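Worked example

This section walks through a single chain of length 88. The input is the sequence exactly as stored; nothing has been trimmed or padded.
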Amino acid sequence: MLTYTLSDARNRHGEVFDRAIAEPVLLTKNARASHVVLSAALFEQMTARLRDLEDQALGAAAEQARAGGEMAGSDAFVAAMTQMAENA
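Given that input, the structure is written out below as tokens.
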């Protein structure tokens, strides 16, 4: 990952944005990571992948809960949800 100081990025912003199309660019302040500049396409790809991974994790947790528990009837479900809402 290419790195620029914030001062360099201000002075060479066109170069920074051009590089960010190909790969993320790290910006530093006082020798510490401050920001990352990346293309909108890469940002969308990363957030879509994160959503997919979250969905997979939730699906696995739901499947584990379903496999290990008993099914409740709709009356029991409504009662449990009502109790949760009242305690929130």
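What to look for: The beta strands are 2-5, 25-29, 32-37.
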